[in-house]
Amino acid sequence: MARRKKVEEKNYDELIQESEDRIATLSSELKAEKAVLKQLKKDKVIFDKMIEEQKKENEIKEITSMIVESGKSLDEIRELLSI
Fold first, then answer.
1. Do 67 and 77 touch, CB atoms closer than 8 A?
2. Distance separating alpha carbons of residues 55 and 26, to the nearest angstrom
3. To the nearest 5 percent, what fractions of the chain are helix, strand and coil?
């Protein structure tokens, strides 16, 4: 024969309601955090593209500066680059 487990006297309805409320709160917090994470990932992609574009612009500025400082004409530079 199996013995019945002793159960403490508690206000189970209240405890169940508190647990369900905590679960509902955690669920809504989880949804909000997932939305934040999704936005952060989108922002990171945009930021990475922006950084890459800035690098390209800086390289173009540096190349332009080097060309100007060289004192060579555009035709001379084209000839040098075609070699």
1. yes
2. 43
3. 80, 0, 20
- How many Cα atoms sit within 13 Å of 17 on the Cβ side? 4
**CB of 70 within 8 A of CB of 77?**
yes
Q: In a 3-state reduction of DSSP, which class is residue 67?
A: helix
Placement of tokens 């002793």 in the chain: 6
d(CA 39, CA 32): 11
What local confidence, expressed as pLDDT, does residue 78 receive? 87
Phi, psi dihedrals of residue 82, rounded to the nearest 5°: -80, -10
- Cα separation of the two ends of the chain: 97
Q: What is the pLDDT of residues 14-60, one digit of tens each?
A: 999 999 999 999 999 999 999 999 999 999 999 999 999 999 999 99
- Average pLDDT of the residues in 3-15: 82
